[in-house]
Structures are given as structure tokens and as C-alpha cells.
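Study this one:
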Amino acid sequence: MPVDVRIPTLGESVSEGVIVRWIKQDGEAVAVDDPLLELETDKASVEIPAQTAGVLRVVSQEGETVAVGDVVARIDGDATAADRAPANAASAAPAATSASTSDDAEQPLSPAVRRLVEEHRLDASKLTGTGKGGRLTKADVLAHVEQTSATPHAVEPVEPAARPAPAPAPETPTAPVPTRRPAPRPIADDDAPASERVPMSRLRLRIAERLVQAQHVAAILTTFNEVDMSAVMALRKQYKDLFAETHGVSLGFMSFFARACVAAVNDIPVVNAQIDGTDIVYNRNVNLGVAVASPRGLVVPVVRGAEQLSLAQIEDEIARMATLARDNKLSPDDLTGGTFTISNGGVFGSLLSTPILNPPQSAILGMHKIEKRPVVVGDEIVVRPMMYLALSYDHRLIDGEQAVRFLVKVKERLEDPARLLLGV
């Protein structure tokens, strides 16, 4: 008896998503826990696994928006390989062609690439893709067209009458070429569109919505300070090898900043609070959001109970979340429940920025690039590795004095990291 494949509950406030791709194809045998499809929600991309074994019968197609509880496929546990053969054989010829190459099925063509492939009458399965995961890009198609254009019958011109072959240029030009005339371009470039319109992903739409919400609802201000990273860098250099050998994870800077923020929250708890209507909610746990750049956009996975974790545990959890983000494996639960966020623009070279709040949180710390600068220590000018820190906060809840003191306490603990280990 066929078993329905339904969209499961995906976490807090997630009610629907878009089917990005079917990992398993219609008529294909599946086993328990095999990933069936990739679903993109406004918080993350998730894979929906099979709950039973059998033959997959797809109901909803790629690109469709489906809600929690919707039936998107059925798995026939009674079907056999012999049952599947006629279904596959009866499929339309174009479908059989596309199914003949698993790469094509796993890497769908973008609208621009598909248009070029059809326009030049190419077989996409015979082209080599250089995009992520072997995906075929527009540049791959244009390069193939240009490379094979000199071979007879390789590419048939779309409008031969409209594009006569240019006459050979004389060895010595009789007149200068006007500078306003553009340089000759390959025919494929002329045919390529000047721009490409693609729909925003649900995740990107959600990011845009939340950022605009933060600007419209909160009274956002930013306060700045700078920290001398000499002590943290010396401590890390001295113990990073032993730390990795002992704990099995690299010692980075994020764990120091996380512990410094947790200690500062203990002194000024309103930074870890949030507004709910006319109430203030003080959070006892520091659920630390760590902004991570993923292939689908900026995501903020949450390290829960950061106040209870050691440096090694924080580093391990951040590394795990970053890997899940890069592989698009974060679940909606990984992205909810944060109470305070750290964003490190320094890894991209940012020297100074004003981070935007991640609602309903009331504060976010921005880290930046470590850069050697001359500073005054005592009565001497010395060169030190310095970093600008930025704390954006909701002025409806947090006063300027509280924000400044919070940032100073973070600075003090980073410049004397022994305090983080001693808890003082």
C-alpha cells in the first residue's frame, strides 16, 4: 500500500517551503532514510528523508511551493523492479534523455544556461561544468561555442543571413579605426542577454524582510571601541598546537570573543534581553548567534547555552555549525532561539562597519580586521595588532551608557584573557 510523503513540521514559524530539487527521481527505488528532496524554507534548506522503502511516485514538482502537511510524493512498498521498468519505458523521450545522465538530473540548468544550450542546439550532458558541484554555467556554454565555432557543423548559426563574415583586415589600415567603435566580439556574446532575471530564494527574501523589519521597528544605534589583540594572539600562538591535540579542534578567536561577551552579559544582562510588546524578557541563557556566510546567503546558527561551554566546546560547536551552513544542512531549529549575535566581518577584510540587529534580539557585536597600528602605551608609541569593535543596540531597551560599558568590559577581558579563564 502506498505511503504518503508529507512535508514535516520544520520548526518555529516555518509553515511552507519550495521544492528546490528531487534528489530521488520518479520511479526510483528508495530505502529508509534516503534523502528524497531538498526543500528551501525562509530559514534554511533541508532534506526530507524517506520514512519507508519502496518505489517513489512524485506528486509535486521542482519549484512548487508546498505547506507543512502537504503530500508531495508516495512510496509504493509493494512495487518491484519489474513494476518500475514499464513506467520508466513509457516516459516521454525528453524525460528519458534527461534521466540518462545523473549529472543533468542532479545539476539543473539555470534559465540563462538552458536558453543558450537550446539556442545553439547543444547536448548539455556532453559539456563540462566548472560551477559549484560541477554545475554548468553560462561561461562554460559560451566557451564551448567559441571553441567549436571553427569546426564545420559544430554550431549552426542562428541567423546566418544577418551576420555575414567580416572581410579580412588589410595588413596596413588605410584609415585609423574610430575609437567609438566597439571591439569585435564573438557571436555568442552578441546573442547573450545583457542581464538575467532570477527569482529571489525564500531564504534571501526572509533575510531582506528581517533586515528591513529591524530598521523600521528598532531604534538602532552603534557604539565603537578598539581592542589590543596582542595578549589573545600570544596566548593562541603559544597553545594552539597543544589545544588542537588535546581537544581535537582548532583554537580560533571566536571562542575568546564568545566568552568575553558572556562575561559582559553577566555584568549587564539587559544586552541579552528583548522587547515583547510592553514587556522586557530577560534571558537567563546566552544563546549565541554566530553569523556565517553560506552559499544561499547569510545565516545565523545558534550556539545554545554558551555561558556553560568551555573554549573548546564553543570552538567545536561553531565549527560544526559552520560546516552545516556551508553544506546547506542547517535545520530550522539551528537558526532559532538566539539572544545575542556576533558577526565577524574581519574575515572578509572589513575594517569598520555597523552591524544590523537580528530581531527580536537587542544587540549584536561586530568584529573586524586585525591590523597593526601605532598606539600610545604609557608614554611611548608602539605598534600593536588592533581591532575595531562595534556594538549595535536597540536604544528602546538599552541605554547608551549600558552599551558603552558592555563594550568596555568585552575589551578589558580580551586584553587580559586570563580573566576569562579565572572568571573575574
